[in-house]
Protein 1
Amino acid sequence: MTKRAPDASDVSVSPPRRRSKYTLAPLVLITGNVVLFALFFVWPAVIGLVYSFTNYTGVGSFQFVGLDNYQKLLGDSTFYSATTRTLLYTVLFVPLNFVLSLLIANVLVSKHAKGASVARIFFFIPWLLSPIIVGVLWRWLFGENFGLVNYFIEKVGGSAVPWQSNADLSLLVVVVAAAWAWTGFSMLLFIAAIKNVPTSYYEAAALDGAGPWRQFISITLPSIAPTSFIVILLNTIHAMKEYAVFASLNNGGPGTSNNLLVQYIYQTGFKSGQIGYASAASFVLMLILMVVAVIQMMVNRRVENR
Amino acid sequence: MTTTDTPRKVDTDSVPAVSRKRPRGAASGGLRRAIAPTALLWVLAALYGIPVLWFVLSSLKPAGDLFSLPLTLFPDDPTVSGYKEAWASANFSGYFINTIIVCVIATILTVGVSCCTGYALAKYDNKWLKAFFVCILATTMLPAEVMLAPLFLVVRDLGLYNSLSGIILPALLTATGCFMFRQFFLTVPDELIEAARIDGAKELSIFLRIMVPLSRPIMLTLAILSFQWRWNDYIWPLLMLNDPEKFTVQIGIQSLVGAQNINWSVLLGGSVISMVPLIVVFLVFQKYVMNADINAGLKD
């Protein structure tokens, strides 16, 4: 111990001099990632921005058209409906996923619930499944003529619900399917956060006569606020770029009523070869994502300052 | 993770100790208190489990029984004909091999690149590294879906269109992986490196001989996550691959869904086959996934 003490103080006194000796090693270590970053992030981001001001089709020459693409987007009703559908989907998906995963995380860490370690696997498996499989699975459950759900509805005397041919219902099915599939991930974050809340808080509250609900509202929720923030942020970003579940569950249907933004970008860019136009749409999506992130950061700061 | 687990263990141990001191009536009270949460837990677990169960059991029904009423949970006459048909007819075996190639290569490279970067970010200190750390953070803001068109052009111009490497290479840039390793290496004491330096070890051999072996649990965790991401990838392979010979499993399944008349027997069989590798990996390495601090990672 006595030998180590001067050593440690030496490090803290002169870190810049000692560490600046090492530039080659860290440079070698990050080379791979730097190359990847330049190739697959900087380059596409730059040309994406450039192309969004051109009429590039992916081949041949192109002209700069100024803000034409963005102006055209503003007047494009398909783009509008894709954007509003995406926002609606996000607004439905995020709270549902939040409530479900928080509820399940709480039940799982409760010391009274028996069999939690086995039950956890049930919540986790849907998260493992690919979005495509999730779509197939829920299409199978919610088939209008053959699905299990309509079968039960008819069994108890109801009439078959048009899960696929009603645009709002088919969006709802995707929301439920996606929330079901993503619970495992959010739940994992919540479990870690809830376990980190000091148990003495609960003991003190119990002594004061607080019931489980009161304890949840006054202790658990405020203590896990940072995690809640991350869960909401991640889920929002995830929902904004959802595509695969829609592709396999109802293919954006009925018709094109549930086409989301990513699908819109995919179709304009790759089906009709309007790379410039699709790039402009991409930047609108990016702007929305950034606004979401900034709003949530501001809200988070306010919550933490309180 | 161990630090968060320990207080929990102490806590659960102390509970029976307290209840033992209580009068006898309290013991049955504990049982009664367990009923409501346990029931809630298992109702929820059923809600999450039944869709998968129904799906898997349906896949074992012969094609003719799939829609026969009344619907039965268990197949009367279980058969794997749907699986056989999917495996043979839809070139599923080929999709499977392609997907495994992509997953294995991408996972090994992702772990390698992330480990190097995470270590550099955690253990060295100069302004270039700090700047690069900000750059890595920035990648979480622009997911691949947002840059579909330009990223496609870049990969095409690199000559990687319609090749498996076109799927693998862009996927290696992951902030999650770098963060996971950075967080881990921050917890490794600097004295270890100092001691090795005093012994005359070179920087890179310190990394390879001491740090890489130390980080084995993180490697495994990231490997599982990376395997899952690549296995489940859909939109990027869809854009990259043109040749059906090179399709991955997810594209293969989606092409079955997109067919004019869905052959549910083949679709169910193929889907269940595609679920198997991930579920096996998960069940074997459960504890690594469960303990993963995914908090740090934002992008897949």
Protein 2
Amino acid sequence: MDVAAIKEYKFESADRLENFHGNQLLYVGWEDHLMFCAPFCFMLPPDTPFQAVVDNMLPGAFGYHPDFAQIDWSKTEWFKSGEPWTPQPDKSLAENGLGHKAVIRFRTPGLTGIKGSCS
Amino acid sequence: MDMKAGSGKKLGLKEKYRHMTRELDWETTYQTRQDVHPLVEYEGIKIHDWDKWEDPFRLTMDAYWKYQSEKERKLYAIIEAYAQNNGHLNVTDARYLNAIKLFLTGISPLEYMAHRGFAMAGRAFPGAGPRVACLMQSLDELRHAQTQIHSLSNYNKYYNGFHDPAHMLQRVWYLSVPRSFFDDAVTAGPFEFMVAIGFSFEYVLTNLLFVPFVSGAAYNGDMGTMTFGFSAQSDEARHMTLGLEIIKFILEQDPDNIPIVQRWIDKWTWRGYRVLTLVGMMMDYMLPKRIMSWKEAWEVYFEQNGGALFKDLARYGIRPPKWLDQISFDKDHISHQAWSTFYQYGAAADFHTWSPTDDELDWLSKKYPNSFDKYYRPRLEFWREQAEKGNRFYNTTLPQLCQVCQIPMVFTEPGDPTKTCYREVDYQGEKFHFCSDGCKDIFEHEPEKYKQSWLPVHQIYQGNCFPEGTDPTVEGFEPLAKVLEYYHVNFGRDNLDFEGSEDQKNFAAWRGMATTNE
């Protein structure tokens, strides 16, 4: 059963790709840093290079945290839908297999938040 | 023609109830029963004999008006006395008022939606007994919305953020959480509505709001809120009984009803528990004088009282709701996770947040010995230090939301408070995300319903949350400012930190005038 209804109940999704004016959504979370209460939701064109997300989006979103300046990006571990994953920095979101509403997380070994609290 | 006035004997309670409820029912003649009550079958619930439903209170309309008007007279006398006496200056601390802003915008509208829901459920039922009982509960809920708005509107004369709750309910990001809860319930069928609100919310969950939180209002000197709270609570016994009697009636009518009702109990306990996150935060962080912790309240009102209820329902083949292990683990965490969320998104809310004092941090340590110092105190102390240096944390990047409960994805993995809980489902080529197994399970059962969710973050990105005529392509466009304008939140007055706010300054000045000869 897709829904309980008295007659046919078919509607399009409220957040389908075409509602975002040529952009797509990308969710990004930083492991062990729950001071940011939830993963972030970015809206970006699908041809955005992955490195541009790291360079242009993440500092504004996560930069308040004192650990952010200490990140060694060469050692960062990435996950896509919870699975280990290696991004290709110069390729676009689409070429990296990141479709609309994809969720990625990054883990920065050695950095575990305020006083090691994962905060 | 002379009319016979009858025997002159007063009707007994039972007889009067029969005349004024069951005998007001009639058989349809020129329309079929099915056309008159079209919503009664599609959910799969089978009712064979509506007359089997008994109203344990046997309340009739004339008695209802008499009791309730007496109660209202007392309530409004107290509200009036509180207003004339400048009772707002007798609350413990102006920070307290922010809990009341949350109540007015987040909780009172639920009363109004409950009024609409019970009116609709009553209309849908072919049985006269539950129909009349639903009518009375519908009127109760309307009264509750009115008395709450009346009590709280006094604060609107003096403090910011109280000015436009009806407008805000439809728009402000965090209000999508309580709003979507009731929208989900009233767009379900009448039986699901009764299990959702009449049973799960009324019987299992509202005690947590109307007993410990409202007692907290009394502890903090807010007689207006205490009075409407206790006035509402005196109706709750009847509501709880209606909810329980309806569910037992449904279960007794046909064994096929049991799995349907079980799924609704699982779903609505989980959804209600998520909404109560707000109440947990109000109790642990927003009452300057605390009465009991969220965890303690949960143990008394859910684990003990709710546990006894589910033991009673076991003989009908009903088991306790799903995910209780996780809920039990989470009682150490959710109020802190919620406060962190509102603290950091304090530039986009219609109330103030603040850094807890040392005394408050110590109270939280004492109440949450297994979690607070380890996971939450370092964060709160860091934020306080930064705020003192003029670097107060305001998160201005939009968060990922859960598709079902609509709360930002702030909750953590079962058993591990250091890992955000991510769940996702691919449905019709699109990804959907959830904060928990509970919300994912709800989506998977009715994806066609929840793929319609109005998620504030996505709506902002789609351009649907700006005032009419806004051109987001103009140079220097500031989306947050426009979104707040759309919300009717006045930047710098209704939002940001309590420290330095107009509310803080005014309260201190007025209380000074009221208690000294300066």
